[in-house]
Amino acid sequence: MHNGTTITQFIIEEQRHIQGASGDFTSLLNDIITAIKVISNVVNKGALIGVMGSAGSENVQGETQKELDVITNEIFIKSNEWAGHLAAMASEEMDDVYPIPAQYPRGKYLLVFDPLDGSSNVDVNISVGTIFSILRCPGECATHPSAQAFLQPGVQQVCAGYALYGSSTMLVLTSGHGVNGFTLDRDIGEFILTHPNMTIPADTKEFAINASNQRFWEPPVQRYVEEALAGKTGPRGKDFNMRWVASMVAEVHRILMRGGIFMYPKDTKDPAKAGKLRLLYEANPMSFIVEQAGGASSTGRERILDVQPDGLHQRVPVILGSKNEVETVISYHKD
Ligand code: P6P
Q1: Are strands 86-91 and 109-117 parallel, antiparallel or unpaired?
Q2: Strands (DSSP E) along the chain, which ranges?
Q3: Given Cys at both, which of 28, 184, 224, 246 links 169, Cβ 3.0 to 4.6 Å?
Q4: How far is CA 303 from CA 101, 300, 316, in A?
């Protein structure tokens, strides 16, 4: 049960921690939350409103866009472009930066998001999510926001969050003072604080990886998974469980709730790609949340939040979750 704290009340109290935050931050988060409520409504209607299936277009990643990818991107834009808190937005679904239209005032923040992560799962009714990250607009970007303005290491994030459209719609947030989870009460249309101060157990017996890529993994990941599969009789001396939902938001939420390690490592499947997941709107926001919950997040060779981005849609290897387990994988990369 909960004590009825609404997310609005929580954010206003949270804002007091943020250096230099005016009502801007609270109002910006409220606009993001509105977009998430609208997306939850659309996703939960599913096939009833006939927006499943392909949009017949490709995104910058060369991935076929689902109709819902395009619709949810539009929802985010419309909900966040008018209020004067942002200088620009960037999204998995848009090739370039989206500058705030001239008829609206510009603000001091940047918003980067994946409006519907795991969207290939929508057609088969498996949980999907939204991931977002808020950055400060450096210097001149309020007038001429460029992609360069977004290329800040993840440690610069002001706030990061995800929405999980699952059996219930949840919103999980951090602005650098721990991680808190909220559940949407559809009867009142408000997110209620249900999971205060979420923390990830330091140890785990559950790993998540797409095992069909096994032959492409680098040796340290091969070793880690082999040892996990060897179980009690192997070098780890304990049996492991495995999960793979193919929806990063669902995997990260499970890890926040009960621990685990999630890996989408660098593989040799496509040597041109440093991994599958995108740094700015998947790896960085999720890494901020995971670290704030006491977990760790690495490429295997460096802390993800320290990576200096070199492109809006840059990909990185991701190894995140229970701190001691991530550190084991990092140690194998050093061997
Ligand atoms: P694969 C979804 O498309 C996504 O970006 C993440 O949410 C998910 O973890 C991963 O890709 C799934 O990738 O190769 O297993 O389909």
Answers
A1: parallel
A2: 54-58, 64-66, 86-91, 98-99, 109-117, 128-136, 159-165, 169-174, 179-185, 190-195, 206-208, 241-243, 261-264, 277-278, 296-298, 315-316, 318-321
A3: 184
A4: 36, 8, 11
Residue 26 CA to ligand 1 centre (angstroms):
31
Give, for ligand 1, the residue of 69, 276, 290 to mutate: max count of ligand atoms closer than 8 Å to Cβ. 276
Q: Indicate the length of the chain as a whole number.
A: 335
Q: Classify domain 206-334 at the CATH topology level.
A: D-Maltodextrin-Binding Protein; domain 2 (3.40.190)
CA of 32 to the centre of ligand 1 (A): 23
Fold of 7-195: Fructose-1,6-Bisphosphatase; Chain A, domain 1 (3.30.540)
**300: CA distance to ligand 1 center in Å?**
18
User: Tens digits of per-residue pLDDT, 172-207?
Assistant: 999 999 999 999 999 999 999 999 999 999 999 999
pTM over 0.85: yes
